[in-house]
What does this fold into?
Amino acid sequence: MVFWIIAALFTLAASYAVIQPFVRGSRTRTQSVEHDLAVYRDQLAELEREVKQGIVPERDAEEARAEIARRMLRLKDAADEETARQDGKSRTAVKVIAAAAILAVPVLSWGGYLLLGSPGMPSMPLQARLQQDPSRASLEELLARAENHLSANPDDARGWETLAPVYARIGRYDDAATAYRNSIELEGATAERESALGEVLVGAAGGVVTAEAEAAFQRALDLDEGNPRARFYTAMGSAQEGDVDRARAIWEAMVTELPDDSPWKQAAGQAAEGLAPAVTNQEDVGPTREQQAAAQEMMPEEQREMIEGMVSGLDARLRENPDDPEGWRRLLRSYVVLGRRDDAEEALSRAFAALGPDSEDAEALAEYANGLGLTER
Amino acid sequence: MSVEIGHFALVLAFVLSLVQSVVPLSGARLGSERLMRVGEPVAVTGLALIATSFAALTLAYVQSDFSVLNAWENSHSAKPMLYKITGTWGNHEGSMLLWVLILALFGAMVAFFGRNLPPTLRANVLAVQGMIAAAFLLFILLTSNPFTRLHPAPMEGRDLNPLLQDVGLAIHPPLLYIGYVGFSISFSFAVAALIEGRIDAAWARWVRPWTLAAWAFLTGGIAVGSYWAYYELGWGGFWFWDPVENASFLPWLSGTALLHSAIVMEKRAALKIWTVLLAILTFSLSLLGTFLVRSGVLTSVHTFASDPTRGVFILAILMAFIGGALTLFAIRASRLAPGGLFHPISREGALVLNNLLLTTAAATVLVGTLYPLLIEALTGEKISVGPPFFNLTFIPLFLPLLAAVPFGPMLSWKRGDLPAAAQRLQFAFAGAAVSGLVSYFLIDRASVFAALGIGLGLWLILGAVTDLALKMGVGKVKPSVALRRLKGLPLSMFGTTLAHAGLGITTLGVVCVTILETERVLVMQPGESMEISGYSLEYEALQPFTGPNYTEERAHFAVSEVGGRPLGEIVSAKRFYTARNMPTTEAGIRTMGLSQLYVSLGDKTNDGGIVVRVWWKPLVTLIWLGTLFMMVGGAVSLFDRRLRVGAPSRQRATAAQGASS
It folds into this structure.
């Protein structure tokens, strides 16, 4: 409402600017030529000053005087012409133009603004948005507010701890990991914090339990060997590396040990069910083709899709960022587990290319691949 | 709400500019004094509205209102307040708004200070100004609206281009635009006179202050831009013949020509047609500059072709105004009465020579700027016309011009005496020659070119001083009389002296730094030191530092004279702006007298060292000091009493009442 009042006042002021010459009395009228004459008189006066100062010699001054005088004479003709022109009978035209101009101001401006503007949309200064009632703010606004607070007070451990799960929930895993790390650094490590850090690292890697995440889970287990989150993900890491037995053992132990109301009990149960049957007798050789085929058949469709998703995520990551021996190892293992032998071999040659065929990393990887029954193509 | 008020004010200003372009013009044609007078209040109100609009946009930046698309794209809440404000014009939309704000300011100034103009001329000038304003306001509203809103509003902005977060760039565009846009007044005067079909010596007197003001600001704008490039880009160069620079240099060249030809027209009523043409061309070059910089055509002809809305719009404006003005010129030029005659060797002749060389130089720069664009448009091949082209074409044209400058003011009007002028300049010439010889024999590595260049610079300075001394009558009259004469001289003569001397000072700076600068590039480990031109630089340490919206690594260097006393510290830094992931180089500059030591950092090496580039730039500050002289010269001339010829005599009797009403 205030906006419309101000807009109306602006329009009034603009209209007044157009009307003003018509409502105010006529000024004393001067002819154009008088303005010209004023300049030439000034030129004459200036000339006299310069002559007096000796800048212009008298001989030149005489000529200049004559020239200026001729200009003044010529003006007389122009003056006559001007008088003739002003006698024109154009009163109607003047009225029409004036009326059109006065009308155009409100019509065009309001029309144009309604077409282009966003009337009624309030200004949103950042400070005011950050201070508004939290219950009406969006998640994004709350986050920005918290970030603002933390950038000013980076030592607020509780702030980081509160913010971290929020980041994790909206998928900003890297920020979540930073937040957990800050909180661990400020308040010290607990099994809960370390395992939560590991979990968001898994999220950041697209579901793959990376070495970094595994280390976090290990630290959590060192602090509390019963931490269910750390145990669950350790098992998942084992499963991803093909150590299905260990995974099954952990998950089944969780099912028996955990109380009924623990959310991890159910999760571990489901995960164990989804695993391939135990594979025995594979101390130093990789799974045989038949065994892999069997594992594939046993894998429920859903779980398979999930793992495939993780693996392709890892694959993509390694294409972007190939200098990661640990990642290659995991990828090879995953392809073998999924029975995609060709892909595994192709990945192996890519890994060699990326790590440099003669490097130590490549040699270690070759050994590892050998263990999986892969050969370099 | 303020954002929408700003938007509404902008639309309203557009409508008023339409009124301003039609009503006074038809008033002048119909001989209706009231219609003619509409232009003045409308121009003033238009200024108030655009200023409101600009203030609203600035407020959105200051408050980090990211519901404004423009603020979100170019601001960040963590940015220092100064750069929040200057960020308003650090982008396309905001800078166009600044452009029309300045245009409106000039229009309002004509309305305000133009009482001494004949009513029809004033009405027509305001109408042409109104047309330019209308065209650009429409352009802003339709293709570059800074008030476009975002819903829902993001919580954080994308930050201003780090290169632009700098004090130099904060003042560069306003100065440059005042220059560019100031020439719109000369243009409007030219078109208005053509519409009336009558141009006299008085016209030149009326245009002169506007041209002078525009020229002085443009000079300042170019100088600040050049200094910014010098220290912010980290290459240590002061002029790159970059198309953006050329775009501002072109109107400066033709504007300088206009300034001089207007003198001839005012004094002798000669060169009328040429002066009018120059007025049109100068603003056309300003528009061309705006087009080149704002349409994106410089980045790539192809990006321009793929999103051509803005570019085509500006191009249409360009063609309408330049084409329209030149057509009008073609129709009316033959009707203009020829003015006074003059001998080739005379003040007029010297000014014609000045004009010929300046416009040819401008044409050269224009070709060098547009040719690559043309080639890219026709063949798709990207070529760049660099300094070699301009060194080969522009400099040979400009050197004779510089050499001729001191002669101009020595020659008298109508017919001059060249030998006599040369005789009067003998001391200046002797001084320049001696200094050239001295520098050739005494300064290390000074070549013949350096000696000639230094001589040329001093020739200009001494020539300018000689002119003033002769006008005072030094040597002919007693010192006390000479001093009294000095006080009596018109301010415009001081202006001439200052500007011509400034030209010499800049020339001196350019020559010295181009020919005599030394450069060293090396990898330094902390604790190592190096020597350059008699100074010793010790690399102490690299320290991290966190700014409001950037992090940087600062390298500290201790400076001292070789084997002598310490001279403090130079800090050079590599800065990283997090919001845009952009690194910048912050050169460390230490001014010693008129020369500078310039330190810029390169990449870090694996063994903990860092690549350091160090320049010794002798007399480099003279380049910008000279432009300061030129600006001051322009300003001094502007206050010459002759430019403030009052209203006609009939009103002079009632001037006291007139002034108060």
User: Anything to note?
Assistant: Chain B has 23 helices and nine strands. Residues 116 and 645 of chain B are 7 Å apart (CA to CA). Chain B touches chain A through 86 residues (CB under 8 Å).
